[in-house]
Amino acid sequence: MMFYLLFSVIAIQRLVELIIAKRNEKWMKAKGAREYGQNHYRLMVLIHLLFFTSLLAEQSVGRQELNEYWPSLFILFLAAQAGRVWVIASLGRYWNTKIIVLPQADIIAKGPYKFIKHPNYLIVTVELIVIPLIFNAYWTLFIFALLNQFILSIRIPVEERALADTTDYHEIHQGKQRFIPVIKKGEID
Question: pTM higher than 0.90, yes or no?
Answer without folding.
Answer: no
